[in-house]
Design goal:
The chain has helices at residues 18-21, 46-63, 75-80, 106-120, 122-125, 166-171, 184-201, 215-223; strands spanning 4-6, 8-12, 39-43, 89-95, 129-137, 144-153, 163-164, 205-207. The protein has one domain (4-223): BirA Bifunctional Protein, domain 2 (2-Layer Sandwich), CATH 3.30.930. The chain starts with a strand and ends in a 7-residue tail after the last helix. Helices cover 35% and strands 19% of the residues. The longest helix is centred in the first third of the chain and has 18 residues, at 46-63. Helix 4 crosses helix 7. It contains eight helices and eight strands; from the N terminus they run E-E-H-E-H-H-E-H-H-E-E-E-H-H-E-H. The chain is an alpha+beta fold and 230 residues long. The strands form two sheets. Strands 2, 3, 4, 5, 6 and 7 form a six-stranded antiparallel sheet that branches.
């Protein structure tokens, strides 16, 4: 039996863009004839997600405020203008590269199936990351998945009892950082890579660990650098 070897790329995107992910515009590296092949897994309205996650905590928080200037009318807008927290976060995962796992190739088709399996259980593995947008792109060089989520921490003593916080959300999922080279985000990404590697092994594909292999994902971020976030 021939055992294939492929790298795994995974990172939190610093230049995420929902319009890019949902193909409301096309970058130069996109083949528009293949955009119809993209797979949208979930596409929820982020405003409704904020209501779902935080309305009860917001009502409770506002009821305790004795000063009107501390009342938060709209938590979504409050976070959108926050300097401490982001409205949402995005993670990108990819198997292989354009040379060994290109879109349309046999291995590219296998990688697409694996990314679908990965996505199907992502929410159940990440109980404090509410996924609201996820899509697999098949109109670029290599199949890859964008997953956008709102991180929320519960039972908080400061501010809302349920509030936006990636660090606290990951801590509640048992990922606690230990220094700048071993952050909670890195530990979490590594855990997700390992899960994807398990799926790959079920198809006789071994995880080739030669480094971080985020070069292609960096290019994906670069392509979106001029696009306003949303």
């Amino acid at each position: 039996m021939v055992i294939e070897k492929r790298t795994i790329s995974g990172r939190i995107s610093k230049k995420h863009s929902l319009p890019h992910n949902n193909r409301e515009f096309l970058c130069e590296n996109v083949d528009p004839t293949r955009t119809k092949d993209n797979i949208t897994i979930i596409k929820d309205d982020i405003g409704q997600v904020y209501h779902e996650l935080f309305d009860n905590a917001l009502i409770e928080y506002n009821a305790k405020q004795k000063r009107k200037d501390r009342i938060i009318k709209d938590y979504h807008e409050h976070i959108r203008h926050s300097r401490q927290e982001q409205e949402y976060h995005e993670v990108i995962f990819q198997i292989g590269n354009q040379d060994d796992t290109s879109c349309g190739s046999d291995m590219g088709k296998v990688a697409t199936k694996l990314l679908l399996e990965f996505a199907d259980s992502f929410q159940s593995r990440n109980s404090h990351l509410r996924v609201f947008n996820a899509v697999i792109h098949l109109d670029e060089a290599t199949p890859h998945i964008h997953i956008d989520f709102v991180p929320f921490a519960t039972e908080q003593k400061r501010g809302l009892s349920t509030r936006v916080s990636l660090t606290k959300a990951l801590e509640q999922q048992s990922f606690k950082g230990d220094g700048k080279f071993n952050t909670a985000c890195k530990l979490w990404i590594d855990s997700e890579k390992e899960f994807l590697a398990q799926l790959m092994r079920s198809r006789n594909i071994e995880w080739e660990q030669l480094g971080t292999h985020n070069e292609h994902l960096s290019v994906l971020d670069f392509k979106k650098h001029s696009v306003p976030k949303r």
